[in-house]
Amino acid sequence: MHTDLVAALDIGGTKIAGALVDGDGTILARAQRPTPAREDGDTVMRAVGEVLGVLTGSPLWEGVHAVGIGSAGPVDASAGTVSPVNVPGWRAYPLVDRVREVTGNLPVELIGDGVAIAAAEHWQGAARGHDNALCMVVSTGVGGGLILGGRLHPGPTGNAGHIGHISVDLDGDPCPCGARGCVERIASGPHIARRALENGWLPGPDGDASAAAVAAAAHAGDPVALASFERAAQALAAGIAATATLVEIDIAVIGGGVGNAGEILFAPLRRALRDYATLSFVQRLTVTPAQTGTDAGLVGAAAAALARGTAAGV
Hints:
Layout: E1 5-11, E2 15-21, E3 27-34, H1 41-56, E4 64-71, E5 75-76, E6 81-82, H2 95-102, E7 108-112, H3 113-124, E8 133-138, E9 142-148, E10 151-152, H4 183-187, H5 189-198, H6 211-219, H7 223-247, E11 251-255, H8 263-276, E12 286-289, H9 296-308
Parallel strand pairs: 1-4, 4-7, 8-11, 11-12
Antiparallel strand pairs: 1-2, 2-3, 5-6, 8-9, 9-10
Helix pairs in contact: 1-2, 3-9, 5-6, 5-7, 6-7, 7-8
């Protein structure tokens, strides 16, 4: 019999993943469905219900005492609602109430997907042993979450640490969020690729114009591709340094597709950080790749559910 068993949901624009996770962070059962992101809200919820149906059908289900949800945002944990930018059918959608209906009124903990990554990295990954950390996802968007004083710091609505929408260029491009020059507008995968194309980078014969293709070109020494990653690294450094100056983190952990680019990103990022993180109390700030991989959202959602009870400190 597993103690401290929780259910976890990781909800994004591409897939809805679910798992049963024990107090050690071991995934004991899992389920997944594609997100019907272009459909109406109830259709999306049906996919969530199918994932939960697999989990509730498990013989382990009777030991589950809470549900953790990490969702693409914005989320509002205080209202129990989600409004993922990339799932237009969900606007102020009462996800917590719907999940409680399906799971027999279990307690539900809702956090943003960036906060979930932070919970996972602090519990199982690169931020283990650090009391003050920023953990980031750099992929199609840029999100993040904070560990402060040894605890997850989701903030009142579950969105704290959303570094993608710190403005680092006052005269920069307009961002869909309404501001200008946001970190996400410069450092996300699609914007790395867009900038490389605008500056003359040409995709190979296969026509792949993704950020991964730009990263491959940068690894091969293409100067335009390298410059696009350097610009992204500069934006990330400015955002990370601002965060460190505000709340005194000592490590920034970076995951997501762009984070997987390796030294093409991390070498210029560390250089730029020396230019931005100049005050004595932020000079020892380190930057490192994430370790929890594709299950980070599930592990982090489970960590939040475990922390809610008395079961396990996160």
